[in-house]
């Protein structure tokens, strides 16, 4: 593997070349729009530069959108904070002094009971496990619907807290990973990401055919993508 940083079209780009890759991939990572390129080991540097220059208007548009997007401050899990679930903000009420942790969702607030002296780190872990259970619950009902619509299924669906991607697909193992943070976004965003990752099982790269297939199986994907982009970004360490 070879990694280096280059300035292309006035943008700093991190380039990583791997012997395991067959194609070139470009990613624009939130929250600041850092650009990364993954390419086959012997992919010519000039071709990488040319590819980035051709994509420059799109790259700049995405970076500008990311930088203008609201970012939540670091959550401390104290009363009065706003926490999202399926696209809706809930006021957090923390009750201190219980023997064990518990979370109860009410119409407009989330009641979080915690032991005395609970650390922010432990509260975050408990909250993330609650988000995981919520995401699993919705995925269990949504995945069969998507699979039936597409006449396609993955071997495995997993959840992981990811910093830069909403989902990933291991094509060889037919394994799909879904970002834990999608429990905070509207359900249509989760459905869009599921369809997007499953289409990779039919078309590996983001070609015109790929986007046509996403549109075939989820016609309102552009609206869902815009919703996902407009929602406040989570605090990133």
TrEMBL record:
Signal peptide (residue range): none
Cross-referenced InterPro entries: UTP_pyrophosphatase-like, YgjP-like_metallopeptidase
Domain YgjP-like metallopeptidase: 25-230
Pfam annotation, one family: YgjP-like
Protein name: YgjP-like metallopeptidase domain-containing protein
UniProt organism field: Lactobacillus iners DSM 13335
């Amino acid at each position: 593997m070879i990694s280096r940083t280059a300035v292309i079209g006035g943008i700093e780009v991190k380039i990583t070349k791997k012997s395991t890759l067959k194609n070139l991939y470009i990613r624009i990572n939130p929250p600041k729009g850092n650009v990364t390129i993954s390419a086959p080991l012997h992919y010519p540097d000039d071709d990488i530069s040319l590819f980035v220059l051709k994509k420059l208007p799109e790259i700049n548009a995405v970076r500008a959108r990311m930088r203008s997007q609201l970012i939540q401050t670091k959550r401390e899990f104290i009363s009065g904070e706003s926490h999202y679930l399926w696209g809706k903000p809930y006021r957090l009420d923390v009750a201190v002094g219980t023997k064990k942790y518990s979370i109860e969702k009410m119409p407009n607030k989330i009641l979080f009971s915690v032991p005395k002296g609970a650390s922010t780190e432990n509260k975050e872990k408990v909250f993330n496990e609650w988000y995981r259970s919520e995401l699993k619950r919705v995925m269990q009902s949504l995945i069969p619907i998507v699979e039936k619509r597409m006449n396609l299924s993955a071997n495995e669906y997993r959840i992981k807290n990811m910093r830069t991607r909403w989902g990933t697909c291991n094509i060889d193992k037919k394994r799909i990973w879904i970002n834990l943070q999608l429990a905070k976004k509207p359900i249509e965003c989760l459905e869009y990401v599921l369809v997007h990752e499953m289409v990779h099982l039919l078309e590996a790269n983001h070609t015109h055919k790929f986007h046509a297939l996403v549109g075939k199986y989820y016609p309102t994907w552009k609206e869902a993508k815009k919703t996902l982009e407009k929602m406040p970004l989570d605090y990133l360490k």
